[in-house]
Amino acid sequence: MKPKLNDVAKLAGVSATTVSRVINNHGYLSQKTKDKVFEAMRELHYQPNNMARSLQGKKTRLIGVIFSDISHPFFGELVSRIEKLLFAQNYKVILCNSADDPQKEREYLQMLMANQVDGIIAGAHNLGIEEYQQYGLPIISFDRYLSDNVPIVSSDNQQGGRLATQALHQAGAQKIAIFTGKNHAGSPTNGRREGYEAYLKTAQLTPHFHEIPFEWSPALKMMTIKKILVANDYDGVFCSDDLTALLTINVAKQLQLSVPDDLKVVGYDGTALIRNYHPDLTTIEQPLADISELLVSLLLQRIADAECDLEPMYQLPVKLVKGITA
Amino acid sequence: MKPKLNDVAKLAGVSATTVSRVINNHGYLSQKTKDKVFEAMRELHYQPNNMARSLQGKKTRLIGVIFSDISHPFFGELVSRIEKLLFAQNYKVILCNSADDPQKEREYLQMLMANQVDGIIAGAHNLGIEEYQQYGLPIISFDRYLSDNVPIVSSDNQQGGRLATQALHQAGAQKIAIFTGKNHAGSPTNGRREGYEAYLKTAQLTPHFHEIPFEWSPALKMMTIKKILVANDYDGVFCSDDLTALLTINVAKQLQLSVPDDLKVVGYDGTALIRNYHPDLTTIEQPLADISELLVSLLLQRIADAECDLEPMYQLPVKLVKGITA
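The joint structure predicted for all components is written out below.
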């Protein structure tokens, strides 16, 4: 049986009026009360009736856009594109840099439940997946699994991993390492890693995995990369993002390793910033224009019709951009 | 005499009810009607009574943040910092990338007039200054003059221009050019240009100005830089932003000019991205942490008290970050 407003009130230990005020964001409510109510809504999988919602005509024309940090060039370009596309459709973007802050990400989900935004595009990964298990809510995910009911848009990370490794191999590298983030469940870099491994297997070469966590500072990353390059005689490195590739090239220079003669390097992402200002870097380009258009279009479909039939996963092709580093 | 709601209605050729609905963003209104009403409000310098506003208790806890494009690393880092500071104060950010779109910038000012946001932080420059001549509205500007009633936060661009030119000169350069944006009224690069000129005058050297418009594509910028470097025998270039400095270094490489031996280069901005991934670049660092804290603190003061006494201009110190390019 579908849970009712009264069930939420009972579980949260508040009155039905309070639940209604939380849902409609009406009047003053303490954060503690709001948290209790949202917690109960989550637990019961309660959702405000969509029909009632649209009958109220309470469209805010606001979209929550949650990414780890727009000061990272990849997210900066992606969010910039998303904002422009949504603006053209008469929506405005509420920006959330959620890096290292699950409570922040949670608060945006609560805004969605409270009808303060009409939908969410999420590319963050602090929250446990269970928090996204509200169905029917208009959420589209970039590049990671959040829940069965949240469609994922991503680029073909496996193919990207294969193409990158192939580029290194065809340029002559034989001992090829991968520098990548932590092996989180649902993380996009897993696919890149799998593509790397698959290509090496076909080529009968040994994989060499090194974790460089995304959230580390650049200085710590460089120290680690230096240790790795000194301790091994790699002649090729696939970095699962372009910024790590730039650090690797800087470290190689410090170690007087010539790129690409002694060490070949391939990055990943291929933002406009990298292609324009680092044309030397060989990288895998994610189709940022297509990704942002698809994210926006799917979200608007789901806002217009909460029951509309979307695929669970949309995977867009990537391509190799040849520089001189491999 | 202060203009009244009826005066706005009369000038706009609509009913007083319509004006009220525009101001309170209530019910369906065509864009044409809204434009007419806002136009009349602007012309008459009409503003909704602030007291009435706060009595309505209509705080949205939303702040409009308008910069040309967050895919530019400087604006990406600045907006990321602003968003984090505002979130900590229980405000959320509505993001506007206004590049090349005065209508977009205008629409955010209308949101402010219509009480849909509580305040605006603006670093864009599409609109004529007259559009910002509403007084009393909580707006803080980054780095450019908008109106007498809008405080400006900026870094010391003149001092930055002097420091950059001095660094080139002390590194041995004698024929020092500046690559900078167009000479817009109120643009921050004017100060950098003035500092450059002032230093050269003291050193009894001749200035060489070259305009590389900010909005040009990187490819066009590179073509232009190549022509300039081929046609002149500069041994030093001060670029008024770091990305142009990176392009200049790339062009020098193509022309087989050694940096810094044949050509010394100094940039401007010194974002975390540049300092972490291009530690070689000598640049002028703007204090982004202090800038964002001041922007947010001044805005919150003005939201709390529309009449509060703020300085017209807050100028923060810059510093030289020494790499190896000069």
